[in-house]
Structure formats: structure tokens, C-alpha cells
Design goal:
With 290 residues, this protein is an all-alpha fold. It has 14 helices and two strands. It has two domains: 1-46; 65-118 and 151-286, Orthogonal Bundle (MetI-like fold), CATH 1.10.3720. It has a two-stranded antiparallel ribbon with strand order 1-2. A hairpin with a 2-residue loop joins strand 1 (48-49) and strand 2 (52-53). The protein is flat and about 70 Å long. The chain starts with 7 loop residues before the first helix and ends with a helix.
């Protein structure tokens, strides 16, 4: 009787695994070189100062209020942008998923249209629109709704508005992909059993669209945490985010260790966000693999 080691099926499985590893080797090499190695270097820099190990860079988080205020402001802006994009993007995705294909293409094209221009151009566009003499203030003043221009830029409000516009597609696309997979027969069955439209939506459609909601919320939240250009242009120096704090430590003070420690803490926060999302809904459902 043949042993397990000489089993032809086992040999074929091992041969297939070796082949898969060979095919994955170039991609793994790229990931390790461009992602893992820089992250390890970042962590190394955060605990080194004047040729010796130190925890002073991380101790600043306990003693320097600027760090806490900046992180809290960053997370607040990220939470506001995530909630706003969800409220704005869900109806758009719902409409696109429910309409015929030709109209869905039109809606998705309008959603993706901002991607044709860079983030820098879109941020400058909002700077022009929201300034004291911009189109929005001029229109409101011309309509007699305001007597003096509103402060819509060079503050947190302008940063949030531009952030919502830039990141809205990242909420709509996962929602649309999830909603498109929901069989319409389920909602029809709920309606045929006497369920009102509101009940059918809240008991059937909304729970089934939850993976897309979680995926979109994680995308928007994490991307907002790393925003740099938008708060720099629209914040007017009054809206500090973590990326700004990293930039200031390097450009003004040449403190690579401090900047590295901030980046490491932010990376840990991002990991916790993904962990929390996976506890709510497994990533297999978010990715649509089961």
C-alpha cells in the first residue's frame, strides 16, 4: 500500500503549492520591498535618538497636548466625513442599483467624474467656491439670505466639505457593488407577504447592504486619517491633522524620530479600525467571498 508521502494526489498538491509560491514570489518581493521594509524602518526611527534607544518620542503623546488635540481633530473630521458620505452616498448607490443598466452607467459616470482631475485641483476648486467672494457666498448674498459672507474656508468646515466631495465615490462604489448583488426577489417576497416599503427596506435590504456600508465607511475613514493637501489648502493653517503634524516635525524641526512615532501610532489606529470592522462583519463578507 502506498504511503501518504508517495500518494500521487499529495504530490500533485505539493507541486501546485510550489508553483503558486513561485508565481507569488515577485509580488511578495515588491510588497516586502516597498511596504514592509519602509514600515520597519519607520518603527526603528521612532525608537532611536542620537545613536541610542529611547521612548521619548512616544512619551510626548502623554505630555504634549498638541498631539492629543491633533489626533482628536483628525478623528473627528474623519468621523464627520464618514457619516456625511454615508448619508449622501447611500441614496445614490440605491438609485443606481435599482435603475436599468443604462441609467446606472450614467449615475456611476457622474460619481467617477471627479477622478478625472487630481485631488490638488479639486481642493483648489473648493477654495475658489468657498472663499468670501466665491460663488456660494455671492449667490447667498444676491438672494438676500445673508448680509455678510459666511466663513466657509480657512477653517474645519471648508476642510470637511472638500473631504466629503473627494471621498464620496469611495462610499458609493462599495455600496453599489453590494446592492447590485441583492436579489430583487427578496424584497418582492417581503412586499408580497404584507410588508410595507419601510419594513422591507429596514428588515431585508438594509441588513443585506451592510457589508458595502462597512467597506465604504472603513475606506473613507482611513483615507481621511491620512489627508494632507485638503486640510493644508482649505484649513488655512487653522485645521491641523496628523499628516500636518508629521510634516511640521520634519520640515520645521528636522525631528524624524518624532514624525516616525506619530506615523507608527497612526498606523496602529488604522489597524484597530480594520480590526473593529472585522468584528462587526467578517472580511470574507465585505470582500464578497462568502
Amino acid at each position: 500500500m502506498a504511503t501518504a508521502a508517495n500518494n500521487p494526489e499529495d504530490q500533485n498538491d505539493r507541486r501546485e503549492q510550489r508553483l503558486m509560491l513561485m508565481l507569488l514570489a515577485p509580488a511578495l518581493l515588491v510588497v516586502v520591498s516597498l511596504l514592509v521594509v519602509p514600515l520597519l524602518w519607520l518603527a526603528w526611527q521612532s525608537i532611536r535618538q542620537d545613536g541610542s534607544f529611547t521612548a521619548a518620542n512616544y512619551a510626548r503623546f502623554l505630555t504634549d497636548s498638541v498631539y492629543w488635540i491633533t489626533f482628536l481633530q483628525t478623528f473627528r473630521i474623519a468621523a464627520i466625513a464618514t457619516l456625511a458620505t454615508l448619508l449622501l452616498g447611500y441614496p445614490v448607490a440605491y438609485l443606481a442599483a435599482g435603475l436599468p443598466q443604462r441609467w446606472s452607467v450614467v449615475i456611476l459616470a457622474m460619481v467617477l467624474l471627479p477622478f478625472w482631475t487630481s485631488v490638488l485641483v479639486r481642493a483648489y476648486s473648493w477654495l475658489i467656491l468657498l472663499q468670501r467672494t466665491g460663488i456660494i457666498n455671492s449667490a447667498l448674498k444676491g438672494a438676500g439670505l445673508i448680509d455678510s459672507p459666511l466663513l466657509l474656508v480657512n477653517n474645519e468646515l471648508g476642510t470637511v466639505i472638500a473631504t466629503i466631495h473627494i471621498l464620496l465615490p469611495f462610499m458609493v462604489l462599495p455600496l453599489y457593488a453590494t446592492m447590485k448583488k441583492i436579489p430583487p426577489e427578496l424584497t418582492m417576497a417581503g412586499a408580497s407577504l404584507g410588508g410595507s416599503p419601510f419594513l422591507v427596506f429596514t428588515r431585508i435590504f438594509l441588513p443585506l447592504s451592510m457589508p458595502g456600508m462597512i467597506a465604504g465607511m472603513v475606506l473613507v475613514f482611513v483615507l481621511t486619517l491620512g489627508f494632507y493637501i485638503t486640510p493644508e489648502l482649505l484649513g488655512g493653517g487653522r485645521t491641523y491633522m496628523v499628516s500636518t503634524l508629521v510634516s511640521r516635525n520634519i520640515e520645521l524641526y528636522n525631528e524624524w524620530g518624532a514624525a516616525s512615532s506619530i506615523s507608527v501610532v497612526l498606523m496602529i489606529c488604522v489597524f484597530l479600525v480594520f480590526k473593529l470592522a472585522s468584528l462587526l462583519i467578517p472580511f470574507e463578507r465585505i470582500m464578497g467571498t462568502r
